[in-house]
Amino acid sequence: MDHPGGGTPFTVRALAEAARCQPATIGHLLAGRYRRTETATAIRIAETLGCSLATLFMDGPSTDPDDASI
């Protein structure tokens, strides 16, 4: 997780501390066990990382070769 200032990348614990949430929340979001979180928490994470909410919580493109959607 890149630091917005170009510094040392965030650890899960450092991002959680900066975004004022539990490290488990960050870990679960990264692992895909949580697909959403409280709005205020999501905003703090995005602000800490210096990106938009959409960047953090949009589904990426499918990696399924049988997916016909383009």
From TrEMBL:
Sorted alphabetically, which InterPro entries does this protein's record hold?
Answer: Cro/C1-type_HTH, Lambda_DNA-bd_dom_sf
Entries under PROSITE patterns matching the protein: HTH_CROC1
| Domain HTH cro/C1-type: start-end pairs | 11-56
**What name does UniProt use for this protein?**
Plasmid maintenance system antidote protein VapI
**Alphabetized SUPFAM superfamilies for the sequence:** lambda repressor-like DNA-binding domains
Native source species:
Kitasatospora kifunensis
Q: Name one GO molecular function term.
A: DNA binding
State a single Pfam family of this protein. HTH_3
